[in-house]
Amino acid sequence: MEKKEIFIKAIKENERLIFKIASVYTNNTDDKADLVQEIIYQLWKSFDSFKQQSNLNTWLYRVALNVAIYQLKIAKRRVSTVEINEQILNHNDDFNNEEEQKWELFRQLIENLNLLDKGIVMLYLENKSYAEIAKIIGITATNVGTKIQRIKEKLKRQHINSKSNGIRGTKNTLG
Fold this sequence. Notes:
It is a single chain. This protein folds into two domains: 1-91, RNA polymerase sigma factor, region 2, helix turn helix motif (Rna Polymerase Sigma Factor, Chain: A, Orthogonal Bundle), CATH 1.10.1740.10; 93-169, Orthogonal Bundle (Arc Repressor Mutant, subunit A). The chain contains nine helices and no strands. The chain has helices at residues 3-13, 15-24, 29-46, 56-77, 86-89, 98-111, 115-125, 130-137, 141-164. Helix 4 (56-77) packs across helix 8.
């Protein structure tokens, strides 16, 4: 199998994780699409540098997270403007179903986390082991466990505060 075929197969097998990373690190569909495209571009650019010292999936996660974090840092430097139009003025904040409500609440809660913690939460929710998360993030497995416990506590406190401030709540996603 040639390089291009291997790359396309790897992208198709990990498409869900790329979209998930893009969803966590962006706020709208246009930015998400741009980030997905940038992640795939950077993966292709650096595909030759993959030395197979780790699992391909681990390498993809690491590159995708690094690209997302880098793009977020760049975006924070830019001044953003929003055009006011009828769609924005008539926007309804109520959600159609419970799953959308849960996801939106979760996004609000993790939005307050730092970039590293967001990545750890996402990997944790993907049922990655502490060892896998450690390899992807570049910290020890023990440190991953400690960080996950601290993140859970922080999210629980945020959730309790959000309920008392009138944000509609749901059960804790991180258990």
